[in-house]
Amino acid sequence: MKENILIFIVDDDEDDKKLFIESAMEVDENISFITASDGQEALRLLKDEHSKLPDYIFLDLRMPRIGGKKCLEEIKADKRLHDVPVFIYSTSTEVKDSIELKELGAVHFISKPADPNDIYYILSVILDEKWGATS
Amino acid sequence: MYTATEEDLLSEIEDLKSRLSEAQEAIDAIKNGSVDAFAIRKDGKPEVFTLQSLDYAYRVLIEKFSEGALNLTLDGLIIYCNSYFSRLIDTPNEKVTGSYIFDYVSEASQQKFREQFALALQGSSKTEITLCVNNKDIPVYVSLTSLQPQLATVGMIVTDLSDKKLYEQLFELHTETLRKKNVELEHLNKSLDQFASIASHDLQEPLRKIKTFTALLKREFNKSLTAGSNELIDKIKTSSERMSLLISDVLNFSRIVHMEDLFVKTDLNQILNNTLKDFDLLILEKDASVSIGNLPVVEAIPLQMNQLFYNLVGNALKFSRIGIPAALSISSRILSTEETENDLYARFNLNKQLSYAEICCKDNGIGFDQQFAEQIFSIFERLNNQEQYSGTGVGLALCQKIVQHHHGGIFAEGKENAGAVVYVLLPLTQSNSAVL
Lengths: 135, 436
Hints:
The complex is a heterodimer.
Chain A: E1 6-10, H1 14-27, E2 32-36, H2 39-46, E3 56-59, H3 68-77, E4 86-90, H4 95-103, E5 108-111, H5 116-128
Parallel strand pairs in A: 1-2, 1-3, 3-4, 4-5
Helix pairs in contact in A: 1-5, 2-3
Chain B: H1 6-32, E1 37-42, E2 45-50, H2 52-64, E3 68-73, E4 78-81, H3 83-88, H4 93-96, H5 110-120, E5 124-133, E6 136-146, E7 153-160, H6 162-220, H7 227-255, E8 264-267, H8 268-278, H9 280-285, E9 289-292, E10 297-300, H10 302-318, E11 327-334, H11 337-340, H12 343-346, E12 356-363, H13 395-405, E13 409-414, E14 420-427
Helix pairs in contact in B: 6-7, 8-10, 10-13
């Protein structure tokens, strides 16, 4: 039996978070979520040693206090969190951002789609594949 | 045998004495300057010697000199100064003569001047100092020359540097202003970058939401929506997509100039081929024929060349006439030197040292009225209505900006319903640019 997937989503935009969760639930209704509204909150929750490690982290870039880039750097510098695949999920369509964040260790750079249907397709591709530290 | 009386001898002696005294008087007169010419009888004819041409000419020369000229004793007492110097320090000649030169040298220059003066006693020296008279500083260049052994004096030539200093100060001031302007410009460029980033993120953000929620509205409430409300939703969708396109076009447009890309040798044939691949589907759809000539290799920014050709080909296909298969031809030729200097190209300020390629992009589309030939390159300028021909009106403005950035030129010729030709002039090489 497939183990339940845990996704950590960090985004200051409540609509986007809600849409993301709805779309992900359509792909697999057993997915559970942890959410944070900025990098600071995310790091506090992630660095709690008693917390369960998420299977995937989806990270927005432009957020108050600690942004996505800094948050990614901290995740990659943390021994426990280092191997959790991080996906950048941002409004940015900049190739420059994409290259920079992949160099910092992001698995993939996703520009938030306008059509909710597209979120569904993107997530089904991601959740069907195994994105691990070795990929 | 020579015989002479004592009387004769005495008279001869008197005569000689008197001639000697005359000669002595003449010498004294010459010495004190009261004689400026004298005549000597030679072979029965008088010969005139003018002393004026000797001493007087030098005096006039020194007096009329537009440099200060002084004669100083070995301890710095001024025994002569010309009128230029007395005007320079605004002190009457009589007052200057008999005073010490050191009295006119500024406190700050005293030591330097005394050193140079001492040096001049052994030969000559030159230096820049400041004179100070009546609290007024006068920057000067002095040249000191010992006139020994002929005269126990030092000659001094003084060049007024006031104007030069003024120009130097003005120059420094302008350099400083320029530096400040440059800093300002850098700030502005940074602000522009920030603006670009805000435009790309913050403006796109709400738009994306509009698109997302209209899509959701349509999906979730599809069954309860009437045909009319569906149409309205579609209009919202189209408008927001258009706005989104507009923002990214404007962003691209603003980025052209401060792109720090380097100019590299770029094969335009390759660029065009890549561009045509992007239009594969549209070419099929429009049943378009495309003919390509051989294009040159130019020093250019490849990405911008891509954008240029993308817009040119895109326009040619977009503005085709309904029911008539689009025919597009792209060719090029090298302009001759005479043509580069031709009036037609004068407005582009082409560099006569460089060779230019003229790329001609011709279509058989809807064309345009020649009176709008300039206007079509203005940003947001559209000659055709939105319903029939999509676009933001940025395409040709972007082309123009790219071409200008490559120090070339662009112009168009057209006739309504009879096609358009866009000419692009590009230098084969870029002057003064780092080319890889």
